[in-house]
């Protein structure tokens, strides 16, 4: 039997009502139709859940997980937010057409997070996309993050069941899992989204300034940062002022808030998830 369909049916029979109930206030507020999530590990296991039972089973029955171009090794994914509307890539057209024609899925917003050992993606779709709705979604992204964190916290049993139903998709895809199949316009859409949110200025930061703002986000003072990277406190403070000017921030509170947004959407790039040097206690 199709393992994807079995997993979808198992999740639907036990948790679809629960997921739909949790999502309903959010759906009503933003005129949304559908919520999904999946986790993909570095060793190629996937687990998933969905609020739209019919679409979940249709997607799984047609083995779209095996042809969906976003399913490839997590090392190819970038953390960020992506909008999908009127998709034109050949690899996505059949899936998108089925979603829009049969299930009234017209626009999707997906959020990808890097997690230990892989990635997780969650997202929402609507049936009647518009420029007004797009702007609303972009302006309220923090609420989507809060929703998902709350969803994970309050539905641990559900998520554990999804993990129990995980499937070794890498084995089924053979060598295709280790090829980068992400659509090219995913990156360009991400860039457009960042610009719309006023976060493109993060690209103007030097590597030293990125280093400084990342340490600020970890809670270190200018003096501590100076000790850690062998600069004077005054030099670090000059860096902070330049960063504030580049990001259009008027206070340290503004800078921290903007920095967290930049970090969340993958704009504070570095060679690792943490600074490479050690700061003493």
Total number of β-strand segments? 6
Structural class: alpha+beta
Instruction: Assign an overall shape.
Output: elongated
**Distance between the ends:** 56 Å
Oligomer: single chain
Beta-strand percentage?
5-15%
Radius of gyration over all CA atoms, rounded: 21 Å
Q: How are the strands ordered across the major sheet?
A: 3-4-5-1-2-6
Topology as a string of helices (H) and strands (E)? HEEHHEHEEHHHEHHHHHH
| Mean of pLDDT | 82
Low-confidence stretches: 185-190, 271-281
Q: In this structure, how is the largest beta sheet organized?
A: 6 strands, antiparallel
Helix content: 40-55%
Number of helices: 13
Question: Would you give an account of this structure?
Answer:
It contains 13 helices and 6 strands. 53% of the residues lie in helices and 14% in strands. 28% of the residues are buried. The radius of gyration is 21 Å and the shape is elongated. A hairpin with a 3-residue loop joins strand 1 (34-41) and strand 2. The protein has 281 residues and is α+β, with helices and mostly antiparallel strands. A 6-stranded antiparallel β-sheet has the order 3-4-5-1-2-6.
């Amino acid at each position: 039997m199709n393992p994807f369909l079995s997993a979808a049916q198992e999740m639907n029979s036990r948790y679809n009502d629960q997921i739909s109930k949790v999502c309903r206030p959010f759906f009503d507020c933003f005129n949304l139709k559908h919520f999904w999530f999946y986790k993909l590990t570095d060793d190629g296991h996937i687990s998933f859940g969905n609020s739209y039972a019919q679409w979940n089973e249709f997607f799984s029955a047609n083995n779209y997980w095996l042809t969906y171009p976003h399913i490839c090794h997590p090392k190819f994914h970038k953390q960020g937010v992506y909008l999908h509307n009127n998709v034109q890539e050949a690899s996505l057209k059949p899936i998108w057409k089925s979603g829009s024609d049969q299930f009234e899925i017209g626009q999707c917003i997906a959020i990808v997070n890097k997690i230990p050992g892989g990635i997780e993606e969650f997202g929402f779709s609507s049936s009647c996309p518009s420029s007004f709705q797009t702007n609303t979604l972009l302006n309220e992204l923090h609420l989507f993050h809060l929703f998902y964190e709350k969803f994970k916290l309050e539905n641990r049993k559900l998520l554990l069941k999804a993990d129990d139903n995980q499937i070794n998709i890498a084995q089924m895809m053979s060598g295709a899992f280790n090829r980068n199949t992400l659509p090219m316009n995913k990156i360009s859409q991400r860039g457009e989204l960042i610009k719309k949110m006023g976060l493109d200025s993060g690209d103007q930061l030097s590597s030293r300034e990125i280093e400084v703002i990342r340490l600020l986000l970890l809670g270190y003072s200018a003096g501590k940062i100076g000790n850690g990277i062998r600069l004077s406190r005054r030099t670090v403070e000059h860096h902070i002022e330049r960063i504030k000017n580049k990001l259009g921030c008027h206070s340290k509170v503004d800078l921290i808030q903007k920095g967290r947004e930049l970090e969340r959407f993958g704009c504070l790039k570095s060679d690792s998830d943490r600074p490479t040097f050690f700061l003493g206690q």
